[in-house]
Amino acid sequence: MVAFGVYVHIPFCTHRCDYCAFATWTDRAHLMDEYAQACIAFLRTSEGAADFPTATSVFFGGGTPSLLPAGSLVRILAAVARTPDAEVTVECNPDTVTPALLDAYLAGGVNRLSFGVQSMAPHVLRGLGRTHSVDAVTSAVGWAVAAGFASWNVDLIFGGFGECDSDWQSTLDVVVDLGAPHVSAYALTVESGTPLARDPARHPDDDVLASRYLMASSTLAAAGLDNYEISNWARPGHECRHNELYWRQGDYLGVGCAAHSHVAGRRCWNVRTPERWISLVADGQSVEAGAETLDVEARRREGLELSLRTRAGVPVGALSEADRLLLAERGLIEPGGRGLVLTVAGRLLANEVTIRLV
């Protein structure tokens, strides 16, 4: 079975976090039903999934997918032709989760959750512009485990304003104690146009980010989670198959406004606003806003760059002999995977290794 993914973008939020530059809206809740119906209608067209392989993974991202009524999300999922063992993930904000929501997800075919936790320190959450509480995280995770979800992820962000080493270590320790089978940990990134970008006093320090990454790496490794991609750790068997599809340059279909698709080296992206998406689908018009096709060399190069980020690594021949010796002496690469993989120090300087790829 050839791996094929479907990504569904849910662009609704109750509040925009200070660092967020995603295509999300806080004043479009009245469009939820129309939007869900447009996603279903699109999936039944030739431009949608009708002419593509059966999906082996489905990912609902956003935005806040868990804001969409569970019945609407499940109806979108039902319109996706997928394999019986397909991985189906829904991103959830902790303060939107209820036992009834999770029961509806399970009954509808969802088998994986991703919780946007970011931090377990209340003052750090406030500095990031997050609205949920620490208690909401523990409740959401507890309900998910009780409902029967075996696979779930905790998304974390390090380097937030007011965060100190002990805050970050405490966050990591709590996540480990919760028994998370998968953890994603990302350095806070300053995106132009966001409230964070306009407030230099809250910008993270690169040396601090490096230190926090090393803390995450050692804590999660000690807890039995393997670093299978620079920012992702998982217990065996709990790797995110949908994200692995991206890192292997697999094919996937993007459903919804601002969603991206990739098929055989051709990338395209949909119109950005939910109103435009709904209108184009209703009129039977193409939802594409733009596209690009990579040539053979660009695709090969991109494949190496993506693979370098993972535990698969790259073939020995992807680096010149001189660069292999230099990078090994500096402790940035070591034997492993397909030939060479990044060390922990190498993950911090991945860009430096990437530019040396042949």
Plain-language structure description:
With 358 residues, the protein is an alpha/beta fold. It folds into two domains: 4-246, TIM Barrel (Alpha-Beta Barrel); 297-354, no CATH class. It has 13 helices and 14 strands. The protein has a nine-stranded mixed β-sheet, with helices on both faces. The chain has a three-stranded antiparallel β-sheet with strand order 10-11-12, with no helix packed on it. Helix 1 (32-43) packs parallel to helix 2 and helix 2 (70-78) packs parallel to helix 3. The chain is globular, with a radius of gyration of 20 Å. It starts with a strand and ends with a helix. The mean pLDDT is 96.
Helical amount: 25-40%
Major sheet: arrangement of strands: 7-8-6-5-4-3-2-1-9
Q: Please give the CATH class of the largest domain.
A: Alpha Beta
User: What is the CATH architecture assignment of the largest domain?
Assistant: Alpha-Beta Barrel
Gross geometry: globular
CATH topology (level 3) name of the largest domain: TIM Barrel
Mean pLDDT, to the nearest integer, reads 96
What assembly state would you assign to the polypeptide chains in this entry?
single chain
What is the number of E strands?
A: 14
Q: Let me know the largest β-sheet.
A: 9 strands, mixed
What structural category arises from helix and sheet content? Answer: alpha/beta
Give the CATH H-level superfamily of the largest domain. Aldolase class I
Count the helices. How many? 13
List the uncertain runs.
none
Report Rg. Answer: 20 Å
Topology order in helix (H) and strand (E) letters: EHEHEHEHHEHEHEEHEEEHEHHEEHH
- N-to-C CA distance: 32 Å
Q: Determine the strand fraction and express it as a percent band.
A: 15-25%
Count of the separate structural domains: 2
